[in-house]
Specification:
The chain is an alpha+beta fold and about 500 residues long. The protein has 16 helices and 18 strands. An 8-stranded mixed sheet has the order 6-10-11-18-17-16-15-14, with helices on both faces. It has a 5-stranded mixed barrel with strand order 1-2-3-5-4. A 3-stranded antiparallel sheet has the order 7-9-8, with no helix packed on it. Strand 2 and strand 3 form a beta hairpin. Helix 6 packs across helix 7 and helix 7 crosses helix 9. It is an enzyme of class 6 (ligase).
């Protein structure tokens, strides 16, 4: 193994400008030298026979100084290079971060080829090497190179791989983050495992995956401000989807009794550590279930996803903290937990005036245009209870006036059969016993329209097409929605911008 690496190439603006000029000259030289070769400085292909991770697995037990007699052709990005007189070393990195050493010696490639390596190969280049697989005297798995070629010339230098990139740099240049940081690569793999696990669990329960429109003539399915666009073809205003709910419920009306979708949603709202204007969401609906049954399913979905990533329901976050997602999760009443935490009895019958006075007393504000008893209850609950939740917890039975798509509670007047799942102190998922009565649904939409007229940008509008579907009879149904980005936060401990491969940034 070569000595400890020196710092990677400097990335000051002046150095980058100079290095790009030097590398462009090398590109021109490569084109001239490969005048008869397709692709010039960027060949169409190179004769790869093996991958770096496959070789590392195959020869994991190779002893220091041992030769295999096996010839392999591999390609990778140069992330370390040291040129000495008659022997050059380079570390080639595969996409998954695994590395193999390339040893380019005068004895194996000849003076002209060795000199070309020294003059043409830079950090960041993709290089193909072929030769015998060996273990160096220091025990480093290596290719003793007999032939090589630049597979792709990097015109810009890599950042210093031995200095942590800033979060801003990681987000804005995710490709460099993926090259430089194992955790970034792990997050991509973890997300793929989570999505695969979700689909497996749904398949095991007989669910069907569908796709619903992202461009909609009427926004609905959530309390959120939409993005608005214009269709030239239809000469009409359209909305980017804020939720797939109303279309998935149409599918249930049509007889797809167990349906789910993993989709992209867009909400024209603020961005912070738990919110992104564009995000991935899972929604699912199960006919002849309710909010209790869908809570059971949600717990299974999350726990199976944790096992897929971490091998256990106890996950380890990025900061080293262990968090237990296992066992049976608590289910608490919103009104009861608020009353206990605040020392004030609050029920669905508590008046708006009483709630307004209490909120003012404890410093909780609700804008006048959205001020309803239920909104005050939810804001007070967040003030008194939310911060003390440690374990995953289903918060049950929400105010009726904040839940226009939810069935009224079967035994508690003034509340609906809705839960929110809190993990790590943030809302991860929500679930309902769905409102399937079209007459009551119309009344709820009308009330929402009144809020919209008062200036509530998040209020729903009357959706006649959805009501028409309900009038053809929707069976009793349990439904849930969960943010995939937030599920990744719960499993990995990362912030939302770290869980999204290419987040929106200014």
């Amino acid at each position: 193994m070569p000595p400890s690496p020196t710092p990677a190439e400097s990335t000051s603006e002046e150095d980058v400008f100079e290095q790009k000029a030097v590398r462009l000259a090398k590109r021109e030289r490569l084109i001239a030298e490969r005048a008869d070769a397709a692709g010039g400085a960027y060949p169409v292909s190179v004769p790869v026979t093996d991958t770096i991770p496959a070789l590392r697995e195959r020869f994991a037990d190779l002893e220091a100084g041992e030769e295999t007699g096996v010839t392999a052709g591999v390609a990778g990005r140069v992330v370390f290079s040291r040129n000495t007189g008659k022997l050059c070393f380079a570390s080639l990195q595969a996409g998954d971060g695994s590395r193999i050493q390339a040893m380019v010696s005068l004895a194996e490639v000849g003076e002209e080829s060795l000199q070309s390596w020294k003059e043409l190969v830079d950090l960041g280049d993709h290089v193909f090497v072929s030769g015998q697989v060996i273990s160096s005297r220091r025990g480093e798995l290596s290719i003793m190179v007999t032939e090589w070629a630049i597979a792709s010339k990097a015109l810009l230098p890599l950042p210093n791989l031995y200095t942590e990139l800033s979060e801003e740099s990681r987000v804005r240049s995710r490709y460099l983050d993926l090259i430089a940081r194992e955790q970034a690569r792990d997050a991509v793999v973890a997300r793929a495992k989570v999505n695969a696990s979700l689909r497996r669990t749904f398949t095991d329960h007989g669910f069907i995956e569908v796709e619903t429109p992202m461009l909609q003539v009427q926004h609905g399915g959530a309390a959120a401000r939409p993005f608005v666009t214009h269709s030239n073809a239809f000469d009409t205003e359209l909305y980017l989807r804020i939720a797939p709910e109303l279309f998935l419920k149409r599918a249930v009306v049509g007889g797809i009794d167990r349906v789910f979708e993993i989709n992209r949603n867009f909400r024209n709202e603020g961005a912070d550590s738990t919110h992104s204007p564009e995000f991935a969401m899972l929604e699912a609906y199960q006919a002849y279930s309710d909010y209790n049954g869908i809570a059971d399913l949600t717990q299974e979905l999350v726990q199976n996803a944790a096992v897929a990533v971490a091998g256990s329901t106890t996950v380890t976050w990025a900061d080293g903290t262990e968090y237990d997602l296992g066992g049976q999760w608590d289910r608490i009443s919103m009104y009861e937990s608020l009353s206990a935490a605040s020392g004030r009895t609050i029920t669905p019958e508590t008046t708006l005036d009483e709630l307004t006075a209490f909120a003012a007393e404890v410093g909780v504000e609700v804008p006048a245009k959205i001020a309803t008893p239920g909104k005050f209850v939810e804001e007070l609950w967040e003030h008194f209870v939310k911060g003390d939740l440690v374990r995953p917890t289903f918060v049950m039975d929400f105010p009726l006036d904040t839940s226009p798509l939810v069935r009224e509670h079967r035994s508690i007047p003034g509340v609906v059969e809705k839960w929110d799942l809190y993990v790590r102190g943030f809302e991860l998922a929500t679930g309902y016993s769905e409102l399937v009565d079209p007459v009551i649904q119309r009344e709820r939409f009308v009330e929402q329209a009144k809020l919209a007229a008062r200036g509530d940008d998040e209020a729903m509008r009357v959706d006649e097409e959805f009501l028409r579907a309900l009038e053809h009879a929707m069976p009793p149904t349990g439904g849930m929605g969960m943010g995939i980005d937030r599920l990744m936060m719960a499993i990995t401990g990362l912030g939302i911008r770290e869980t999204i491969l290419f987040p929106l940034v200014k």
